[in-house]
């Protein structure tokens, strides 16, 4: 069987990639050897969160008196907690199966292996082998628990995370090897329900070693208060499982001191390793490194047509990372504009108490990357600002102190050579806007535009009753009506791309006064032009006051507002079409349409989009009207409103995503469109008039007005009777009789 895309693995990377591909009109198959949803939904993210929720509730009950609530006799039922967790996982599995069916994705159960020629051989549970082909194949086989050389997992006394969430009995004592997210979350869970927990971590930092050191330090304190013992900078030497209790022999890296911990079970939580063996990678020549597949920024391997996402890559082993990679990969395959993932901007979370979350560099990682910073720098700058009451001046004083520390005292005053805060603001803000428009806004708008264009092509010849003044009018075609919005967007996007991003760089009042006073023979205008153009990729405004005149920003905001107005118009039209049943909406079993009326399937995506676009336009309009106006050379009102420049973009992006979701839910109700046309035969009156005028028939409009005006019961028979009684040639009558509301649609 042939497909456009085959996805090997149905975890949060694989199933999300498959759904996005189906939305982009690809014929998709997904291959899964175990359970839909992969490790995350069945044995990872989701069921562990169910366990952790039980732990959290139990912890609340234990401290209920802190909130003035008296609770007596509460205890944790381990079997019931595990059962609930497995039930949640089963429900998620069924949910993924529903999504596959809803999106017409073929699910193939079995073990897949890549073969040459775009083929995948799948062996099912009975040993039968079937072959499938596709020009594009995504490897999303995920990962499994990493097994350390000196820690043999036997599934009974030494276990990995899958067994840890389905133990038959609750252990009294547990040793967890590894203090990453897996180890910390299980440590918190088991400790909360009464298990004595010791966490052993080889890294010196201890708990959550990938987080900032301050976070590890604080979490260790909290865990100690809960009774969780943490051994940082400690390695496991041997594990003796021969006796009634397990003996874990550990050794401290710092001084070599050894000790033995007795427990009932050992959880190996040393991370994950990729599932890349025996799936045909070597035979195809796909490049790997220590088991991980090597890909480019679009998730392409070195073999054309083979892609990889998720835990088989050396990127963060997180569900949302896999999903983001899946979407990026599929959209690139489909020819959409995509922006490569900045992995330093990926948030990470550890669900314990307190919960841990972070994004970006840790302090140490920033230093390793060459940044000379301290986490206290921001606090120090704010303390300076409280004295100066000026944010930019506070940064200046901070930088001067840094120059002194670096032995650059002779150059410290050049930190503020001819500088005004607006030379920073009026270069940084247009640069920020340029990046936001080009890297985020336009790609998303173009995705929506393509989606709309594809639908207009699919429905290009579907006849539809038009409405002018809210009343039936000469018929049109559904595809053409959608194409109207495509063309309007194209025109505005083309205009948007012509608007320059202008920056001001000219000193206090725009004349480079201080620069020429100090160095009168230097060409400061050329310097400023080169810096703005070559250094920032912007255009310099040559004649300004202390601030940039913002006329180009106003043009940008007006243009964005016009695009939003087009989208609002689209929202309202689609809302109307849904309300008159030209479209049905795909239903999702778990969703409700109304809190009181369960039969409803509300067009909420279009309502949500319209509301967000309206808020965005209100702010865009204010920015466009306010910014070009200054009092003489400068006041601070522009600085105040510019702090909100990201808000309308956020509302617009939310709206665009709602519209994409809304389009994906549409189901054409062709029967209703046909029924409306059949009920409105009078709408071909314009065509009858045109033919009669061609034949020099006297007063055709008046004749049709007398026949149709105010009447609601005109149908095929009555209209044909009217035509038959007209004193015209039979050939012309046949031409008129051939007209119907279904074919009177122009070209």
List keywords for this structure.
45% helix; FAD/NAD(P)-binding domain; globular; five-stranded parallel beta sheet; 25 helices; 747 residues; alpha/beta; 15% strand; 5 domains; 28 strands
Structural account:
This protein has 747 residues and is an alpha/beta fold. The protein has five domains: 5-145 and 273-341, FAD/NAD(P)-binding domain, CATH 3.50.50; 158-270, FAD/NAD(P)-binding domain (3-Layer(bba) Sandwich); 373-403, no CATH class; 421-673, Fumarase/aspartase (Central domain) (Fumarase C, Chain A, domain 2, Up-down Bundle), CATH 1.20.200; 680-738, Ribonucleotide Reductase Protein R1, domain 1 (Orthogonal Bundle), CATH 1.10.40. The strands form ten sheets. It has a five-stranded parallel sheet with strand order 3-2-1-7-20, covered by helices on one side. Strands 9-16-10-11-12 form a five-stranded parallel sheet. Strand 23 and strand 24 (471-477) form a beta hairpin. Helix 13 (421-458) runs antiparallel to helix 14 (478-496) and helix 17 runs antiparallel to helix 18. The chain is globular, with a radius of gyration of 34 Å.
């Amino acid at each position: 069987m042939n497909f456009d895309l085959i996805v090997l693995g149905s975890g949060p990377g694989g199933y999300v990639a498959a759904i996005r591909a189906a939305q982009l009109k690809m014929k998709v198959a997904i291959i899964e050897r175990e359970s839909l949803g992969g490790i995350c939904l069945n044995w990872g993210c989701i069921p562990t969160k169910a366990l952790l929720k039980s732990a959290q509730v139990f912890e609340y009950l234990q401290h209920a008196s802190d909130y003035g609530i008296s609770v007596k006799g509460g205890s944790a039922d381990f079997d019931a907690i595990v059962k609930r967790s497995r039930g949640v996982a089963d429900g998620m599995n069924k949910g993924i199966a529903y999504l596959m069916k809803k999106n017409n994705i073929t699910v193939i159960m079995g073990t897949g292996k890549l073969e040459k020629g775009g083929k995948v051989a799948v062996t099912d549970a009975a040993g039968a082998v079937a072959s499938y082909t596709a020009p594009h194949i995504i490897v999303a086989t995920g990962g499994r628990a990493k097994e350390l050389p000196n820690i043999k997992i036997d599934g009974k006394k030494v276990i990995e995370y899958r067994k840890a969430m389905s133990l038959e009995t609750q252990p009294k004592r547990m040793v967890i090897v590894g203090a990453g997210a897996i180890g910390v979350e299980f440590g918190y869970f088991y400790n909360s329900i009464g298990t004595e927990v010791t966490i052993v971590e080889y890294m010196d930092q201890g708990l959550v070693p990938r987080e900032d050191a301050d976070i590890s330090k604080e979490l260790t304190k909290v865990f100690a208060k809960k009774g969780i013992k943490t051994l940082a900078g400690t390695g496991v030497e041997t594990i003796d499982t021969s006796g009634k209790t397990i003996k874990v022999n550990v050794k401290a890296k710092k001084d070599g001191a050894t000790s033995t911990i007795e427990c009932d079970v050992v959880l190996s939580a040393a991370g994950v390793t990729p599932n890349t063996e025996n799936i045909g990678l070597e035979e195809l020549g796909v490049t790997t490194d220590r088991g991980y597949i090597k890909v480019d920024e679009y998730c392409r391997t070195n073999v054309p047509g083979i892609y990889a996402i998720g835990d088989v890559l050396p990127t963060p082993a997180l569900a949302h990372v896999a999903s983001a990679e899946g979407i990026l990969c599929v959209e690139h395959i489909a020819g959409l504009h995509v922006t490569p993932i900045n992995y330093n901007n990926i948030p990470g979370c550890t669900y314990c108490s307190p919960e841990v979350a972070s994004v970006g560099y840790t302090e140490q990682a920033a230093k390793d990357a060459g940044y000379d910073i301290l986490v206290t720098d921001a606090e120090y700058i704010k303390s300076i600002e409280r004295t100066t009451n000026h944010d930019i001046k506070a940064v200046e004083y901070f930088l001067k102190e840094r120059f002194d520390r670096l032995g650059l005292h002779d150059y410290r005053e050049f930190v503020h050579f001819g500088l005004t805060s607006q030379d920073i603001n009026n270069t940084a803000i247009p640069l920020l806007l340029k990046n936001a428009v080009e890297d985020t806004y336009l790609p998303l708008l173009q995705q929506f535009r393509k989606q709309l264009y594809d639908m207009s092509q699919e429905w290009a010849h579907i006849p539809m009753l038009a409405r002018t003044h809210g009343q039936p009018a000469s018929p049109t075609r559904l595809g053409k009506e959608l194409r109207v919005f495509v063309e309007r967007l194209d025109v505005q996007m083309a205009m948007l791309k012509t608007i320059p991003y202008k920056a001001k760089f000219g000193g206090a009042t725009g004349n480079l006064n201080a620069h020429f006073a100090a160095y009168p023979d230097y060409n400061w205008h050329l310097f400023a032009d080169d810096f703005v153009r070559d250094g920032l990729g912007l255009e310099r405004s040559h004649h300004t006051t202390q601030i940039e005149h913002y006329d180009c920003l106003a043009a940008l905001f007006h243009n964005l507002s016009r695009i939003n107005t087009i989208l609002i118009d689209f929202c309202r039209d689609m809302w109307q079409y849904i309300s008159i049943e030209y479209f049905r909406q795909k239903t999702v079993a778990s969703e409700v349409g109304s809190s009181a009326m369960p039969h409803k399937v509300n067009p909420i995506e279009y309502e949500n989009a319209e509301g967000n676009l309206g808020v965005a336009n209100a702010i865009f309009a204010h920015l466009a009207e306010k910014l070009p106006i200054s009092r003489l050379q400068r006041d601070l009102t522009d600085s105040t409103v510019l702090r909100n420049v990201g808000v309308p973009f956020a509302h617009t992006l939310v709206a665009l995503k709602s519209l994409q979701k809304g389009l994906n839910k549409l189901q054409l109700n062709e029967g209703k469109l046909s029924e409306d046309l059949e009920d409105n035969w009078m709408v071909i009156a314009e065509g009858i008039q045109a033919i009669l005028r061609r034949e020099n028939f006297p007063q055709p409009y008046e004749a049709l007005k007398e026949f149709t005006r105010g009447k609601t019961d005109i149908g095929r028979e009555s209209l044909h009777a009217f035509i038959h009684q007209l004193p015209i040639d039979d050939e012309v009558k046949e031409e008129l009789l051939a007209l119907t509301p279904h074919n009177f649609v122009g070209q």
